[in-house]
């Protein structure tokens, strides 16, 4: 498999977790390199559904190593909860998990600031997951963040934390928010530190050693291209680089060691949170929600739904260097009579094929659709490409052509078996 980066090509929740779990069979090491527990990656094995937030989705396969890289922001309390939750389900977590000592930490004051900033924005809110992700990455960029290596140093951590709590409580009070308790945070984080200590190391050195032994690496993107801090629909984005380049900076693996980029996309589009979404369609949303689908894995919010947007995925393909596509949730369209695909935008009378940079301009874009007939039967039992209805194959080939990459994986259900390789 060589070294493969997997990215979301839309607004997140494309089904990355399912595809990572599937591909991990051929990988040795799975690496998360950005984001935090704002991510929610769902994997269904038999009757059991797992939702992973910080731990890479490769953890459910025996004999594989999972790495949380330096680019991830870690809420230690949430991470310990996730480790314990998996252990309670019989998943072994010992030497198969490594956590970068350089990863920045998320603290309760980040969560409080996240919530308060959202409240102050009123109708302009981003619709964040309120996990403190923006403020934690903000501290990292401002060089005031604390890292896992700080937490591991029991003697110096209390004083470093005290300084950060002091400053953040001044800000919280000035925003009319409740200050956080230094004593409580120290106590909770010191307990978490001892649970995490055995996993903490220099993951860059580990990864490079593994590469020199010819191990295959799989980089698990979190969020999606249009939530990228630089390339997404700013400010309605997350605070990390969710695009392929983020896999390099967030893991310490240089670009020339990456062999392939897989873009994961749904056969339609979803978005959770606020911000522009040109192909949003309420009827399609109602249909999917009535089927019990498209509710957020992290916050449980109903996802906004819309048609496949080839303007967006083509641009995503360009930014990420996507050479292979994994198209998920094809079965979501099984009973849609007429399916629409966005092939261009009309913005103030002009036809454009590149998403505008300004969010309010994206908001003004009217999609230009091509309509194609639906296949009107179930795809969930198909196990080979040939078993898919001809109209479904035509649809997949159309979106691959418009996106500009090769079809590699098609997913027709949440389980491992419902995965077709072309
Ligand atoms: P991620 O954040 O990209 O990992 O995606 P999420 O797990 O948040 O959301 C994807 C949802 O779609 C989850 O509920 C998955 O179990 C589900 N899923 C993934 N692929 C398929 C598919 O092909 N068909 C169906 N029905 N569900 C799928
Ligand atoms: P996965 O990895 C979908 C969205 C939030 C909000 C914006 C900013 O499961 O695909 P944040 O809490 O990051 O500051 O929120 O980003 N968002 C996601 N949407 N899937 C995700 O992750 C997301 N992570 C963040 O809804 O709009
Ligand atoms: Mg998700």
What brief labels describe this structure?
binds magnesium ion, binds guanosine-5'-diphosphate, Adenylosuccinate Synthetase, subunit A, domain 2, binds 6-O-phosphoryl inosine monophosphate, single chain, 422 residues, alpha/beta
Give structural notes.
This protein has 422 residues and is of the alpha/beta class. The chain folds into 2 domains: 310 residues, Adenylosuccinate Synthetase, Chain A, domain 1; 95 residues, Orthogonal Bundle (Adenylosuccinate Synthetase, subunit A, domain 2), CATH 1.10.300. It contains 13 helices and 20 strands. The strands form 5 sheets. The protein has a 10-stranded mixed beta sheet, with helices on both faces. α3 runs parallel beside α6. The radius of gyration is 21 Å and the shape is globular. The two termini are 15 Å apart. The mean pLDDT is 97. Guanosine-5'-diphosphate binds next to α1 and β3.
